[in-house]
Amino acid sequence: MATEHDYQAFLDRVAALEETVADRLSSRLVTDPQLADVLVKQIDDLLQKAVDADMALPPPPDKGLAQLVGVGPDAASRLGQTRVPQAITPYDETVSSERLIAMGDLYYIYQHERIGIFRAIQKLQELFRAGAVYLSSGSGAYALYQFDRREVLRYTGRDRLSAYRRAFGYGRAAVPVGSRANSDFHGLFGHFANQVALFWRDKRISDVMRDRAYDPSFGSIAVVRRAGLDLRNNLKFTSYGHVNVLRVEVMQLLDEAYRILGSDDIKRIFGADTAWDVIEIILAQYYGERLVTSPRQRMAIAGRELFRWLAQPHVLQTQRTQFETLLLGIAAYAEEWLTSAQSLGVAVRQEDRRVLPWDRSTLPVGGGERVAPPPVPRRPMPPVARGWGNAGPDPGAERESAMRSGPDAV
Questions:
Q1: Which residue ranges make up each domain of the chain?
Q2: CA pair distance 345, 370, nearest whole angstrom
Q3: Residue 407 carries which DSSP code?
Q4: How does pLDDT run across 323-358, given as a tens digit for each residue?
Q5: Residue 168's CB: how many other CB atoms inside 10 A?
Q6: Please, where are the H alpha helices in 210-292?
Q7: Helix, strand, or coil (residue 3)
């Protein structure tokens, strides 16, 4: 086990090594910035190996206490001879990819539920039972019959809504006993999408400004990694339970519903070309809803891709070049999700805010149902006369009022 003296001497030697390497390679580091990342990574690995080796050694029976307090034959004569543990096992940032992929599928299902596919199929069932539509023995009619008969074997709509609330904090359904709504998800998810979008916006700017477009950009990978890890850790505990089984069943249900709505006899009744046209016609005619089919469907696709990227260990990569290469796979999806969510009013672009505030009262709330309105500028109050008579307003008071009523006023 390392003593306090050995511990201090080792850290000093590592620092001296860093200074020596930086001094000898300073000229090369100017022309090859990637070399600095490689050197830092090698030194960090060296330090981590020493820490791991020390942590692997078993501690003494008394954990080093007798040596520290001066009891027994092994009592230390000075502080440098006492045992100093290097660290404890770091927080496990790994998450089962199967669970996160299941959460991505559940998010995909939720967006289609918000579109209204299941409500459209329910209304079609009602019309079919009442004989209000010209359906009898076609493929769509027979599939509707089978869809209705299998309903008793599936999760109910209440089960689906409860799962959305527990996993994402969306909706107002009651969560199962012993669990709680994941109210932090939407803010963290929007924050991650924003940071990915900002990173690639910075990269595009750097590509224009520099000669070699494929050099590493000046965007911060640490901010993107931290946003991704926060979101992964948030989903880590809400992905347990029956979510995996439920999303498999509901994905089958979603596929079956879409195939029914796309049957030739059903499309012919509504004069539609595709199943999406049937859905929009039913929602507009029978529910009088404002159609959000296109942005919601793109949010479903792009959002699921973001989940699938987080399910892999890509976010744990610390090397800039490798991280940028891996992040390229979701750059367009992040922009697309953010643009679609912004058009629906359920997300905001964080152009001037790179860190998610701890007080999230001003961020989009659970389910992204609404966005807190921007603060209303306050009108400057007339200054109180303090011996000024009719000499006019106090300039200092005007400046103070303008500061309070600015864009950052709360």
A1: 4-81, 100-366
A2: 7
A3: T
A4: 888 998 899 999 999 999 999 999 888 765 556 565
A5: 25
A6: 221-238, 243-261, 264-270, 275-286
A7: strand
pLDDT grade for 388, boundaries at 50, 70 and 90: very low
Dist. CA 383–CA 109, nearest whole Å? 57
Predicted TM-score (pTM) above 0.85: no
Mean pLDDT is lowest, of 36-40, 167-171, 254-258, 378-382, for: 378-382
**CB 133 within 8 Å of CB 269:** yes
Which DSSP string corresponds to 306-354?
Answer: HHHHHHSGGGG---HHHHHHHHHHHHHHHHHHHHHHHHTTS----TT--
What is the band of 212 on the pLDDT scale with cuts at 50, 70, 90? low
Cα–Cα–Cα angle for 213, 208, 310, rounded to 5 degrees: 60
Is residue 41 within 8 Å of 319, Cβ to Cβ?
A: yes
- CA pair distance 60, 250, nearest whole angstrom: 55
Cα–Cα distance measured from residue 240 to residue 93, given in angstroms and rounded to the nearest whole number: 16
Q: Which amino acid, 23?
A: D
Distance in angstroms (rounded) separating the CA atoms of residues 243 and 254: 16
Q: 120 and 281 in contact (C-beta within 8 Å)?
A: no
d(Cα 197, Cα 352) in Å, to the nearest integer? 13
For residue 100, give Cα distances in angstroms to 87, 167, 173.
30, 11, 22
Q: Is 264:140 a contact under the CB 8 Å cutoff?
A: yes
Q: DSSP of 161-218, one letter per residue? A: HHHHHHHH--SSPPPPTT----TTHHHHHHHHHHHHHHHHHHHHHHHHHSS-TTS--S
**Which residues, at least 6 apart from 119, have a Cβ–Cβ distance to it below 8 Å?**
283, 287
Q: Is the pLDDT of residue 183 over 80?
A: yes
What angle, 0 to 180 degrees and rounded to 10, lies between the N-to-C axes of helices 275-286 and 243-261? 90
C-beta separation of 301 from 157 below 8 A: no
Cα–Cα distance, 258 to 121 (Å, whole number): 9
* DSSP code per residue over 50-109: HHHHHHHSPPPTTTTHHHHHT-STT--SSGGGSB-----PPP-----HHHHHHHHHHHHH
